Amino acid sequence: MIARLSGTVVDREDKSLVVEAGGVGYRVAVLSNLQNKVAEGDEVSLRTYHHVTSDAQQLFGFLKQEDLRYFQLLLTVPSVGPRTAMNILDVAPPRTLAQAVSDRDITLLTKVSGVGRKTAERILIELEGKITLGEQGAGVSGGVQHEAITALVSIGFSSAQAREAVSKLPKQVTTVEEAIKYALKEKV
User: Fold this and answer.
1) Would 167 disulfide with which of 90, 96, 126, 184, CB 3.0-4.6 Å?
2) What is the mean predicted confidence (pLDDT) over 13-38?
3) What is the pLDDT of residue 143?
């Protein structure tokens, strides 16, 4: 199995990169935030998940070990495959997902393409106890988090940018106002 891949990005495709390593080009599905960070010619080193089925092999690549760990946790949920897990992590990075599980926030998960209410409920049930906020250090409650995302979108952030900004809030941020100020400061 391929656990790590280091090489040069030779092509950027929809939701994936082609990474050349040792003269071979590997197509690696990646999260949108990584896709937006790299350009052709950049050197990358990815932690990978090698998904093998009877009719295909796919690589899923992550910059952070935490992203890979959450991806693998999502795969333990019945009816969540690799593409759905990637879609979930695009909408809810690890800290946001941990907060959603803690708050049992089904609304966030049902916004993900391919995740209905039953699957969202199953994700919350299956991940409860496997993900703790202590490891994430989250300080913003679900209600404040949701309001901060809504406020950031209303002032021009894309939905993904707002969720990412809120997922990176330090634990001492506990109000919507503090969250917005922090997100604006970090964007500049």
Assistant:
1) 96
2) 94
3) 61
